[in-house]
Write a structure and sequence with these properties.
With 759 residues, the protein is mostly beta strands. It folds into two domains: 5-89, Carboxypeptidase-like, regulatory domain (Immunoglobulin-like), CATH 2.60.40.1120; 228-751, Beta Barrel (Maltoporin, Chain A), CATH 2.40.170. Helices cover 2% and strands 59% of the residues. It has a 22-stranded antiparallel barrel. The chain has a seven-stranded mixed sheet with strand order 10-11-12-19-20-15-16, with no helix packed on it. Strands 5-4-7-8 form a four-stranded antiparallel sheet, with no helix packed on it. It comes from Psychroflexus maritimus.
Amino acid sequence: MTNGIDFSKYSNGIWIVSKAYSHKITLKTSAKEPIVGAYIKPYNKSTNVYGHLFLDLKQFPAQFTLSHFNHEDYKLIITEDSPQQISVIMNPKQINLEAVNLKALYTNSIYINRDNHIQVDIKKMPLLAGQTQQDAFVSLLNLPQISTNVESVAELNIKGGINDQNLVLWNGIRMFQNSHFFGLLSAFNENLVQKISVIDNATPAEFGNALTGTIKLNFDEKIADNNSYGVGINALSSQAFTRLALDENTEFAFAIQRSFTDVFDSPTFQSYTQKAYRDTDLELSEDSDLSDNITREADFYYQDAQFQIKRKFGEKLRINVQGIWFENRLDYRENISIQDTKTSDYNNQNAAIGLDATYSINKSERVFLKSNYSRHASEGMNNTFSGNLDTTQSNTVENYVTQFIWQKQNPNSVFKVGIDFEGSVVFNRFNNTVTEAFLNLGQVSNIYSGFGSYSFRKDKWKFYTGFRTAYFQRDDKLRIEPRFQVDYNLNKNIGVVLRGEAKSQNFKQIIDLDQNFLGIEKRRWVVSGDSISPPLQQTYQVEVMLKWRLNNVGGYASIYNRGLNGISTNDQRFQNEDQFEDILTGDSRIYGVLFHMYFKNKWLNTWLSYAHTDEHLSFGSQEFRGNNNLNHQITWGNHFKYKNWSLSIALNYHTGLPFTPTNTNLPLIELSNRNLINFEHANSGTLPDYFRLDSSLQYRFNTERAGKFKISLGFINLTDKHNLLRKNFRLNRINEQNIQQIDNVGLGFTANLGILWTL
């Protein structure tokens, strides 16, 4: 019934025509034009060419949703007192200029969007080699501009930078840690994360206080139509998650995870602990007289919880509230006898909560407001027989951000202006009862910023320019940070991009105590402006990129040049204590080449990534290779799919990283009645080449009543290759005549089994 009239046959040649509806609804645009093809849930009826919809309602009140692909949904309630003829004006949908231009990089779920940023649709991504569940960060390591030199998602290096120079945003909240198990696992539940965005150049002006890449992890923007649930387990942990549609305008999402590594010593856990604890205070004895008599016990676990509440208030206002908490805890004991016991511990906690709101002023103007709080805390006590060290220390960061943005969006352009405030409080405490050394340093940082940007698209051209002005109150410095991008498509298959940016950062992680937190976690956050911390850091980057796509083959290549000013000799690049007599500041110059190529069809995806990084550091008169200097890095990945089965195989290779050896002829020198290691020229040595082969196998099946199941088997380092990731040296704390060599070795052969159920 599309015209509201019912025809019934009375007799031969006689028909009765009658009205067959209780209510007539007319749908129009704001220009009073009829809307054709709008449908009504759940009656499965659509409007005719006049925009009319006829309903025969028997029960009241009746509530339903009017939908159309070009217009915003309209919720309508009809009561017994409602008029029989109802007119509805439907608002057009906002056209988001960030809509993707699908150019898959190695699967259909990983692509470059129109702004030339990497996008990952985590829900659609296949299981990659070595995994038993989708890891939000491991998926990024197949891209040539992202690497980890120590097999750690806590140390993601983007274009030669180091991880503390990245801005990691979880639903818009800055996170100061992103991992469990000392960098071996991601801390973010992949079952709630919908999209990951990686911005490695031409960073939008609203993002600041970070030198290299911006990584955004966001939940699904849409409000769920139905409730969904899931439970998963593997050889390390178990998890549960849910998305609840409380009503048509409200959703609640929640996820929890808890490892059972403190009660079950699985083979996977043994392999992970062998990598994490090797040559730390948990494994490395410095007193040979005691080593045979000491028994060691260690209990470790990790856990996390995260939630989001989404609520729409009419057609104009949307508010999200989200929070996350995760913890890693290690309890360590050394025993010589029942009465003679020493205990150590390490606890790392991260918590964050935030609110963001979007309000549509009209069809083209919107305002965005976000306010959030993030806290990172690491606390530890190092008390061992073998190390002769009794130390307590802590590092805490509290970060507050409030940002306001006004945006005007037209069909071919977007104009934004905004302001934000970032306040931080950082504490570092250290107390050694043996040497009576102590530190109690508090730092307060306030940053006031204003920014604006304009983007324009026409025919084959796209242009973006943005400026960010930031005043760093602690350093009393004003920085102007331009960003730009020019994109030209030669044809539908080939595009050329020129882009660049300048950015600043006053946060940093330093390493000035080799035994921080039992020698496992050595990094501490500081803010610029004190003798312990470096000056305000700055960077610039210019890049030329070529993109191509032809049938089933595509990819991109780029050449870039980066400069960093304000790096210091106590940052993460340098693992040797006292390698430099004083804390020096210097510069870094990076030249890089990136190449990525893929081939895909219905059953096979294969891709090849290559990166060359040439970094040179200069500290006064000293010049040497950068610690992340990768002459050649290659990733070759493959994903096969047949019916419900999928198989992934990946090869990772890179040339050996630089390290600083000791002088073999004169390993020790004496200075002020103290022995010091006599190092050779910085980074004059080279580690052996790195090679790792991983694989995963997954079987999926669905049931009508019991839900969906995924059974996954992952293998890391199939060849059991002994990969030396990092080499550094320190003096023996018991006998300063001896030098200890610390070798950081990669994971050996490691297998894991995972089962995931969703409903």
